[in-house]
Amino acid sequence: MKVEIVHDSLALIIYEKTSAEVKARMKALSMLQNRYFYYKMNENMVLGQAELSFIHPFLEELNLRAEEHAFINKSQAILDSQERQNRMRKNAIILMGATLIMTPFAIWGWYNASLAKTEAAMAHKKTEEVKKENEVFRKAITKNGKLKIKRLPPESEGGTAQLEIGYASLFIEGQVKDENGQGLSNAQVFFMGAEVRSDPKGFFKFNLVLHPIDLTKKNIILEVKRKGYIPKEQAIKIQPKLKLNIALEKVEE
After folding, report:
1. Residue 168 host element (H or E)
2. Which keywords does the record carry (predicted)?
3. I need a labelling partner for 105 at 20 to 30 A (CA). Which of 42, 72, 122, 236 fits?
4. CATH architecture of the domain covering 154-247
5. How many helices (H) and strands (E) in the chain?
6. Spatial separation of the C-alpha atoms in residues 149 and 38, rounded to whole Å
7. Domain-by-domain residue ranges, the chain?
């Protein structure tokens, strides 16, 4: 017992004396391995811009495997593609405004409105991206509704331990209906950063895994949208299983 205490104390002293650069490199490696673990479960869960920027300075020192390099390259390629699309859309809007025949005042007003709309759309998209990145570590869809993060093999850990994290499962099912009680297909249902669409009869399901922090919240908002109908928000009280019926009203013409 005394030997173990001395060993642990010595390890703590060595870690505290480790340079800030080494600690940052260890954090970058741990972050990459955790995100790559989730990526193997769902290929849409790639790295975000903030994570790539943090990892990039240490790439030459991390001695990564080929599949981890491929994961980083894929994440960067997706971000580059999104940036190009944003620039093309913005340029198209500006070009369209330049070709219209308007009075100077109308041109100025249109340009400001278009620019504000474009910036708002880009800000919304960025917010959604950040939201999805945050949800990676607190939402997962599994067969049994439970998730347990296992230790990674020693060769992939780089000397860092992976923690086992407990999550609480939440199952939601429901139906989106119109004013006459008929099911509405293709309705968008949003809940805690996740999105599903209703089937041809209006039914939808969520099978989520919640972070312990979420369990402290009394109510969480579920939002339903469909073209031609007024969007609706509903406060959801966290329970293991929920069954909902949501009615939407048509937009008056």
Report:
1. strand 168-177
2. Membrane, Transmembrane, Transmembrane helix
3. 122
4. Sandwich (2.60)
5. 7, 7
6. 10
7. 2-135, 154-247
